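Lecture 7, part 2: worked example. A protein chain together with N-carbamoyl-L-aspartate.
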Amino acid sequence: MLKGRNLINVDDFSIKEVLEIIELGKKIFEVPSDFSDLCDGKLLGTLFFEPSTRTRLSFEAAILRLGGRYINVAQSESASTAKGESLVDTVKTVASYVDIIAMRHPKEGSAIVAGSQCSVPLINCGDGGHQHPTQTLTDLLTIYKTKSRLEDMTIGLCGDLKFGRTVHSLVKMISKFKNNKFIFISPKELVIPEYLKVDLEDRKIEFIEEENLENIIDKLDILYMTRVQKERFFNEADYVRLRDSYILTMQKLSKAKEDLCILHPLPRINEISIEVDNDKRAKYFKQVELGMYIRMALILKLLGVR
Ligand code: NCD
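Predicted complex, written out as structure tokens:
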């Protein structure tokens, strides 16, 4: 039963539960009108203490399309946390007005603390460089719809693997499906965190690390590009030096498989040349679209609405 639960990190839900959400997301995508009044009378609170376009708007669109409504704190300066109120007090307050909360915060671990004191389901929409589980649900639905499977794939993750929370959540989750292998492509300064590598080793999941995208692009079934996370850097000079480490162009793609699936959680800065957008392998705008449907499914499950 998912009703009443929080989603803080990807390990909170079993594979079976994740597949249920994906299945429901797929159904909603196919016939959205069947779901258009299921959240009549329900209120979502979106609490975003960091910038967001897709995640916040897709949650707000999701509840509206389910017949519910939302209230929001879209700019952290507008909430009383800016006066010094603790996050827990702010979340407790919002929880007394709404039925479910979607929250983003710049500090790692903020979601687990807030969720432990929250009387309604709390969804982590990104806690610093830690996790972003609803992006992972979006990624899985996109992969499933594109490839008709979530197993037996070579998955390349490219860019800022150190600070990229979407990467951390995706690797944790998709490594639970059979026979997936990983190629981590990043500059030395932005390699995937040690704890994730140890976890993969413990579970005997194959992975390699590589600095050059062109060396391995022909092996990939999925290529997950990411932006260098400027806001997590301690100095501007390092960011400027690393930000253009990878730029996916049609020329680089000439060596890739015909059925490669190219994903990016967005926003894109420079990592994918816009000429790639028209290639049939580019699925990142499909991914954006599916993000709303998977969030509709998640809201329904956590509210226990049928
Ligand atoms: C990501 C995030 O916020 O972590 N964006 C998103 O939610 N789609 C990725 C990013 O900001 O680079």
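Residues 54-55, 126, 132, 135, 165-166, 227, 265-267 surround N-carbamoyl-L-aspartate (CB under 6 Å). The CA atoms of residues 249 and 273 lie 5 Å apart. Keep this in mind for problem set question 3.
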